[in-house]
User: Fold these one by one.
Assistant:
Number 1:
Amino acid sequence: MLEGILPLWKEKGMTSHDCVFRLRKILGMKRIGHTGTLDPDVEGVLPICLGRATKAAEYVTDMGKTYEAVVSIGRSTETEDASGVTVEQNLAPKRFTAAQILDVLQSLTGEITQIPPMYSAVKVNGKRLYEYARQGQSVERPSRKVLIREISLLSGGQLFEGTEVELRIRVVCGKGTYIRTLAVQIGEKLGYPAHMASLVRTASGPFRAEDCLTLSEVEQQRDRGILEAALLPVERALSEFPSVPADDGLLPKILNGQVLSAHPLLSAHPRIVFYDGSRAVAVYRRHPEKNGLMKPEKMFGMAEDKR
């Protein structure tokens, strides 16, 4: 049975669920989970969790992401990306300096407020927004705070001119950020309608583009019996949490999932990971009801795997 994290390069035209469906057929296993959806028009890094690594999928989903996007200034769409119907268009000649654009990007760095697009999977009253949108309905969407750690201008030159101006940017951001909404916000600050012309996710947490295989490469390596070498250990998904060695006296209690006295590191961190050598055995967090204690959130040790 395969086990670990498969950094997949999701190609355009597929949903994240399509990728999981294909992988289940290629690998002949059911215990597979993806780590957050990518729209069909978006390509890029999609870590796939196999075997016991599926327990860590939510941690990868919560990690920061890096994207490269093309923002088109001059036209907005109902989906905020290139696939949508045009909502507003302004074909007047436009002229922006690099300094103007950098000022706008700086103003959108840090914690910002976004309103999720109608064509998104966010739920309102138990129903996804895209379901309302497909029925021609518009509902009030709750705003959310997201973290933009960095926006870089990748396009060269000091002057950007035209009726529809394209800017290439790199965005390092936290969970829940909509890059297409960010494209619209950039346009608003420049005074024009805008949309996201294209998007590539170049990193998801510690998983990078250079780590990735396409579905066809996965199939080829599986047939040649060398796919295991491409898998990354589940511990990579836990790298953002402090690691604590489980000594011989503590290890049996951890493997049995016991509630324990809270570790001092939990005063500054939401979670810690106990290790038996180089192998993660459990993620612990503060007990939500019992002060001074901690409880397991995820178990990766042998005791649970045998139950």
Number 2:
Amino acid sequence: MPETVCDLPHVDTAVLPEMLDPARTALLVIDIQTDFAAPEGLIGEAGVDLTSAHHAIDKIEELIPIARGVGATVGFARVVTSAETDSVALKTLMQRRGRSGEEAICRAENGGADYYRVAPEPGDIEVSKLLYSSFSGTDLDEQLKARGVDTLVITGLTTDCCVDSTARDAFHLGYHVFIVSDACDAYDPDLHHHSLNVLEKNCALLTTTDAVKAAWQK
């Protein structure tokens, strides 16, 4: 019988509240944008099935108001690019793969970088990035530490790329990292499962939307 995300170790819901003190915790929403999630975005137009991504966004939409309501920080990270900001390494990688031009994702000028279904509100943290990690080339670490945040509850797209990169960097920077397993997606269930498995083994604890809601609604 194939393994599922439910088979991976998740934090005991009974002890989760003490780990997710809202005053020291940020809910981080990664790359919920047109090009990654909307049917009219580049990923959708390429024919990728977005059903599982939309399920993850449903969960994120549940968590955001609860986090705000209990006083946790809510942070948004998104990719915003232009032809001038594409790195030589990225362009060279794509050219060597024979996919020149496919790096033109989340362009600021055509709406691909726009938020999809979710958006920051006054008081939230917001950062723009050029590649994968929400910490690389941004002031996210400084903003979080200025608020006394030492714990991150990470959601978003995609589990294998920007969620993974952000979680690893967060751990290296000293944050307690939690991944909401049903509020992330990798478009492919096997890739999602294996990415969560690796993160759980190395730098993060797994939890679920319902568990986080229960921890914050007591």
Number 3:
Amino acid sequence: MEDFSIRPDLASRALGGGVVFANDEFFAVADHLVMPDPPTFSPRTFAHKGQVYDGWETRRRRSPGQDVAIVRLGVPGVIHGVDIDTSFFTGNYPPYASVEALAVDGYPSPAELQAADWSPILPKSPLDGDTRNLFPVRDSRRFTHVRLTIYPDGGVARLRVHGDVVPDPALLPAVFDVAALTSGGHVTGCSNMFYGRPHQMLAPGLARHMGDGWETARRRTDGNEWAEIALAAPTAVEFVDLDTTHFKGNAPGSAALRGSLANGPWFDILPAVPLTPDTPHRFPVHPAGPVDRVRLDIYPDGGMARLRVIGRPDRTVLEEKFRRHVGTR
């Protein structure tokens, strides 16, 4: 079975996700569900409502029903699987959960979302406590929101919604970062990701720390490390950003970027250039033609905080990708 958890978490706060409604947050607020960092726990840490949990926890239900949280995805997309993480919830996790999804334009209110026509993507399913509960999803439609229902009550540390980003072309400018996760760029391969996965260098904003980027192990053999990224669409690339922020004693000595179109031969976008530690580098480029994938080579190893590939994409391809996942199963 495919490991869907290697795909971006569409609900992550790091991509702009947020909890827009929860019917009960007595012990711990639902905003924790979309935090990008793994949950933590400090035993015997009590506040005025009891043990402090890094997750969403509702009160003990004394009447029929269930508890609900609605999450706005940070980036709309096709969902390949959900991770209902009950880490550190042992005697207080929900025994069952279900997930529904919704595609809606604009910025609906919590009341409008509750009244909407939701599609089930995970039926009521049993959960285990203090673990990640992984469930594949088989629905090719594009969604903007998910609704987590727990039966009857309890605590969930994180809700991860892994999938492929499908942005609305009408909301994209003429020139943008076509490698960005939020634009539909995604990693297709890499040589090494010992300390940090390469998709992190495609995340929005500045890197928060050294762990918020791609970092390899120390290379002890000849050669170099690399990562390949599929772009949002075939693009005429105009600028490349190679950002080594936070990487001081472990930045690559140099890097190069090559491109390819329709699985054709690789050609230079940016020939090998020396890199400075802890520094954003920006390079105007003039490649021989459009590309739909790029390969970043770092020499010989090290860490990259962010990679930006800025250019003018083929709008026809963007629109076709969007139509392919709207309203179809």
